Structure formats: structure tokens, C-alpha cells
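pls design
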């Protein structure tokens, strides 16, 4: 898939939003690194990433929380954690606005709220999610030979955690991780 880059500044769609919901507006948000949208285990549209997901988000005020909903993938060893790196990059300067590494359980539904530096003015941010990957065929799960990362449902910017809906209250085995972090521009995306 195509990666977001310098040319995105020249072709930012006028209807760019502060969120991406797979099956709703992923094409308008210039997403790359995803496979076709499908119905996920909860009956909501989602898509597997290739391990290197990119999209654009437009801040609309003083967003301070990045909300992610996804299902983590598989590993050969059942007790291993599934690792992600989440980056928000300022599209004008290419500087990291935010970077965070996250460990989560394998094959779990994850609702993660990450505190980010509050935005003072509207800006365009590139969301990058690098994750562990697996191949279902190599794990003898199916004949699917694709290299898969996470199964993402949505990413959304909110002004506060209080605005984030409680989406996983009725989901068995749902894992909620809420983390506060400070700006860290020193972390670089790991090579996959």
C-alpha cells in the first residue's frame, strides 16, 4: 500500500476529519497499510493492517486524547505480548508530535486512550501504527498467506477522556488500557 508522505500536504482532502472509522471514512483519511474492510468479530467493520498503518487526522480544537479500538494479532508463543508503536507526526514539520510503545495481550479487543499534548490550533497529523505481524498460514491457522498486524476498527482524537464513549462494557474478555504520557519525540518507528 501507499504510504503517507510529503505529497499528502498537496492533496489534503477538504473533508478531512479528526477520526477514522473503517468502512466509513478510511478512504478520505488517506489510509495506507491496510487490507480490505471486513466484518470483525464484534460485527463492526474493521481491517487488518500490514504491520505499518498510516492515515491523516485533522485536529479541530484542543484534542488531548487519542482513542484507538483494535484487535491484536497472534504470535507463535501464546504468552508473548503483542507490541505496537503509535506515532502522531506533524505533517508540516515531520516532527513527532507524540510517540508511545504499547504491549497488549494477543488476540484481545483493545480500547486504548493515550494522553497526547493538547493542540492549540487546528493541524494535520499523520497517525502511524507499527505493530508486530503474523502469517496465519505459517501458524497453521488457515491458508491465508498475508502478513497481518492488528485488526483496526477506529482511531479518534478527543478533547478529554470524559468524551470517549465506553465501547467495551459488554464485550467479553475486553481489555482497556488507559495511559498518560508526556511528549516524547526521541522514539523512532521500528523497522518491520
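designed seq:
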Amino acid at each position: 500500500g501507499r504510504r503517507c508522505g510529503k505529497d499528502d500536504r498537496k492533496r489534503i482532502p477538504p473533508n478531512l476529519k479528526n477520526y477514522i472509522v473503517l468502512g466509513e471514512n478510511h478512504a478520505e483519511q488517506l489510509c495506507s497499510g491496510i487490507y480490505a474492510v471486513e466484518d470483525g468479530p464484534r460485527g463492526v467493520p474493521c481491517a487488518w493492517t500490514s504491520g505499518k498503518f498510516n492515515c491523516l487526522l485533522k485536529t479541530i480544537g484542543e484534542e488531548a486524547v487519542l482513542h484507538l479500538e483494535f484487535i491484536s494479532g497472534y504470535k507463535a508463543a501464546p504468552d508473548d505480548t503483542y507490541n505496537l508503536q503509535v506515532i502522531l507526526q506533524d505533517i508540516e514539520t515531520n516532527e513527532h508530535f507524540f510517540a508511545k510503545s504499547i504491549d497488549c495481550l494477543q488476540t484481545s479487543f483493545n480500547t486504548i486512550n493515550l494522553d497526547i499534548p493538547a493542540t492549540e490550533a487546528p493541524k494535520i497529523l499523520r497517525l502511524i501504527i507499527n505493530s508486530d505481524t503474523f502469517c496465519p498460514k505459517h501458524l497453521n491457522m488457515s491458508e491465508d498467506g498475508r502478513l497481518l498486524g492488528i485488526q483496526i476498527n477506529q482511531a479518534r482524537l478527543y478533547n478529554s477522556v470524559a468524551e470517549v464513549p465506553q465501547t467495551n462494557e459488554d464485550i467479553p474478555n475486553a481489555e482497556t488500557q488507559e495511559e498518560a504520557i508526556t511528549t516524547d519525540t526521541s522514539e523512532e518507528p521500528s523497522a518491520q
